[in-house]
Amino acid sequence: MNRIYTIILAGGVGTRLWPLSRTYYPKQFLQVNGHSLFQNTYLRAVENSRPSDIYIVTNELHHFLVRNQVAELGYPVSDEQILLEPSGKNTLPAIAWGVFEIAKKSSDAVIMVFPSDHLLGSSAGKELLAAVPLSDQYLVTFGIVPDSPHTGYGYIAPGSPLKTGFQVQEFKEKPDEETARQYVREGYFWNSGMFLFSVPVFMNELQNYQPDIARLFKNGAPWEELPSVSIDYGILEHSGRVAVVPLSSSWSDLGNFNAWYEISGKDSCSNSGNCAAIDSYGNFVTSEDRFTALIGIRDTIVVETSDALLVCQRDMAEKVGDLVKDLKKQGNPITEIHRLVYRPWGSYLGLETGPGFQIKRLTVEPGKRLSLQRHHHRSEHWVVVHGTADVELDGKHHFIRPGESTFVPAGVMHRLGNSGKIPLEVIEVQIGEYLEEDDIERTEDDYKRV
User: Fold this and answer.
1) CA 136, 206, 45 angle in degrees (round to 5)?
2) How far is 54 from 32, CA to CA, in rounded Å?
3) Cβ-proximal residues to 201 (8 Å cutoff; 6+ apart), any chain
4) What are 425's strand-pairing partners?
5) Domain extents for the chain?
6) Beta bridge partners of 344
7) Residues 332, 88: Cα–Cα separation, whole Å
8) CB-based contacts of 321: which residues, under 8 Å, 6+ apart?
9) What is the separation of C-alpha 3 from the centre of its chain, rounded to a whole number of angstroms?
10) Angle at 106 (CA atoms; ends 102, 107), nearest 5 degrees
């Protein structure tokens, strides 16, 4: 059997899981049962692919989230394996980029494609592997046997049976409730968004149905020239070489909090989450900071973070995405960023903001350091509360210990680092007329952001 490569699509945002999922820390990086959804996807990939044969398509914003989360699992990942989209172009250009990169190493490779934000049961890896013999002739999709007439998924109509699975008769868009019931009665599958194919089959169908995309990749054209199109619309709905293999493994795309509720543990009153409840039934509760108590509440979602609270009926969970769209139109940054923001060197937590000042808690991981930088519109005061700080200030180096501090004037080159064995925690007080993150002039950076 040919060597199996994997493409993981990790560029999505997941607005229907706000306020947990936000632009700078989206759904695929949220933890579910000990690992993030992205990490679970990566672990599924290494069941059948070598770490060096796994390619991840993401964007610059999430580059170091991807890199750090792979490192947490103990696997190496090279720069060549992380493909950074300059802008979102939907699934077909993302997948095609991965295929063209893999083809440079193996022109007849077998490739699995996974969204990074789905949750699958433990048997899924073996079921996926069993479909590999089809990959020489077909673009293989994987269908989920519906347990309800869901209106949030596309459907696949199976046609003639194959040795494994079926030829695809037709793809169906997300239906209304009555149409979904009809699809379930007729034995249609949910479209999982996972794929399997060989390089020659994909390249042939790409050339047949999207020759402009094939030409642009072959010629190394700028990314912005590529059209935005899904693999379903661009190829699968037109090709006669598409198969569907049903999966018996459990599956969820965690598309909203109601889906999260369905896979969560529940108490005797069907409440999920850490809460005290009286005469309350069927609720989903998650809270970062506060203890939650419910009295007389039914079928409700309660999601609390340090800076936002969401309360909605469970049967209206899909509307959270609409709420986020409205907030974005208003220019509200609550959809973009958490108070806790991850950086390649660690993280920072926003503690307080007022006119002309901002207070943060910086955590710098052992062996990491920030860029050599300066700010034109603000000064900074650092107080070390844990660990030892390596400080470079105007070309001079200092060690600052817990309880000690230093002042960084505006316009002065500086760098904060941690050469110790434990995390460094620093309280940073920023003072100035402009405090946004884009007031950074970098001259040297370990993470190539200069």
Assistant:
1) 55
2) 22
3) 135, 136, 137, 138, 139, 241
4) 363, 386
5) 4-252, 257-317, 340-444
6) none
7) 22
8) 15, 16, 256
9) 26
10) 95
The hierarchical CATH code for the domain 4-252 is 3.90.550.10
Of the candidates 299, 300, 296, 320, which has an alpha carbon nearest to the alpha carbon of residue 308? 320
The two tokens of residue 415 are 């760098």
Residue 52's alpha-carbon distances to 4, 69, 81, 422, in angstroms, are 11, 16, 8, 30
65 contacts: CB under 8 Å, gap ≥ 6: 25, 29, 342
Give the rounded distance of the alpha carbon of 375 from its chain centre. 31
The residues pairing with 390 across neighbouring beta strands, listed in sequence order, are 399, 417
E strand or H helix that includes residue 118: none
Q: Which homologous superfamily is 340-444 in?
A: Jelly Rolls (2.60.120.10)
Q: How confident is the model at residue 1 (pLDDT cuts 50, 70, 90)?
A: low
Residue with tokens 């370990």: 446
CA angle 42, 64, 10 (to 5 degrees): 45
For residues 358 and 350, is the Cβ–Cβ distance under 8 A?
Answer: yes
Kind plus residue range of the DSSP H or E element containing 137: none
Tens digits of residue pLDDT in 368-404 = 999 999 999 999 999 999 999 999 999 999 999 999 9
CA distance 282 to 298: 6
Peptide bond into 355 cis (omega under 30): no
355 three-class SS: coil
What six digits make up the tokens of 318? 């899909």
pTM for the full model?
A: 0.90
- Please check whether the two domains, 4-252 and 340-444, share a CATH topology: no
Residue 183 DSSP symbol: H
> β-strands 292-295, 275-278: how paired?
parallel
User: What's the 3-state SS for 50-84?
Assistant: CHHHEEEEEEHHHHHHHHHHHHHCCCCCCHHHEEE
DSSP secondary structure code for residue 45 in this structure: H
Q: How far apart are CA 47 and CA 50, in angstroms?
A: 8
Mean pLDDT of the chain: 93
The tokens 């599924």 sit on which residue?
Answer: 44
d(CA 233, CA 241): 14
What residue type is 392 in one-letter code? E
**Extended strands (E) in 119-165:** 119-120, 139-144, 155-161
Pairing mode, strands 242-247 and 139-144: parallel
Q: For residue 383, what are its two tokens?
A: 């107080």
Q: 261-320 pLDDT, tens per residue?
A: 998 999 999 999 989 999 999 999 999 888 999 999 999 999 999 899 999 999 999 999
363-366: Cβ within 8 A, 24+ apart: 363/423, 363/424, 363/425, 364/389, 364/416, 364/417, 364/418, 364/423, 364/424, 364/426, 365/418, 365/423, 366/418, 366/419, 366/420, 366/421, 366/422, 366/423, 366/424
Who's near 110: CB < 8 A, 6+ residues apart? 1, 2, 3, 4, 5, 132, 135, 196, 197, 198, 199
